[in-house]
Amino acid sequence: RIFAVRVLGTLGVEATPVIPALTELLRHPSLSLRAEVLESLGKLGATALPAVTAVNEKLLDAKEDLYIRRLAAGTLGNLREPGVAALAKALEQDEDEIAFNAAVSLAANYGTNSVSAAHEVLQSKNARGRRFAAMALAKMGPRAKDAYDRLAIAAADPEIAVRRNAIEALGRVGNDKAVDLCVAALKDNAP
Predict the structure, then answer these.
(1) For the chain, how are helix, strand and coil distributed in percent, rounded to 5?
(2) 172 phi and psi, to 5 degrees?
(3) Contact (CB, 8 A) for 155 and 163
(4) Whole-angstrom distance, CA of residue 5 vs CA of residue 24
(5) Counting Cβ atoms within 10 Å, is residue 175 exposed (0-12), middle (13-18) or buried (19+)?
(6) Which residue has the higher pLDDT, 5 or 186?
(7) Quick one: residue 111, left, alpha or beta (phi over 0 = left, psi -120 to 50 = alpha)?
(8) Are the C-beta atoms of 117 and 88 separated by less than 8 Å?
(9) Residue 81 predicted with pLDDT over 80
(10) CA 93: distance to chain centroid?
């Protein structure tokens, strides 16, 4: 099965009729098979859109293996816009590894909704979510310019990790006001 799944991941739109079968295999007990299915769905990109709900479930399932959850984050990133909401929600997950992978995948997603989703999580009460939302925006660089004002507020967040990532994002966004905020950050008591 694994080799068949691997080949299906290379077929593009020709694999459309088998997306439901691949989606069903995400429930298989074999970690290796589930991993290969996620890899293949990620390679199929938009062709795999019918699987977005099942991939989202894998990402957010706290009982699922961390490796599978990380792969699910990458797969959702490859699905572009339909994966954005799930990735934004994953920024607030309890496991840093999952939130980190969600941030990386969200940043790699070039849709306009990815900036908006990270911007929204940056306003969350969840410190982990704010931290990883700021990280995602930093990785987006100039594409995140619409989040500048919120990042400026986050630069004074009570949590040091949020401040650090917000300052980095401000520098990468490329706004002249970022210098003033970085100078203010030099006065922060935290190293």
Answers:
(1) 75, 0, 25
(2) -80, -25
(3) yes
(4) 12
(5) middle
(6) 5
(7) beta
(8) yes
(9) no
(10) 11
> What tokens were used for 160?
């040091």
pLDDT in tens, 23-42: 999 999 999 999 999 999 99
**CA 129 to centroid of chain Cα atoms:** 11
CB-side neighbour CA atoms (13 Å) of 100? 6
Report which residue type is found at 185: A
User: Where residue 108 falls among pLDDT bands split at 50, 70, 90?
Assistant: confident
Do the beta carbons of residue 16 and residue 48 sit within 8 Å?
Answer: no
Closest CA to 156 of 134, 176, 129: 134
**CA 129 to CA 37: how far, in whole Å?**
28
Cα distance between the two ends of the chain: 52
Place of tokens 């500048």: 148
Enter the pTM of the model: 0.78
Give the C-alpha separation, 45 to 107, whole Å: 16
The mean pLDDT value of the chain amounts to 88
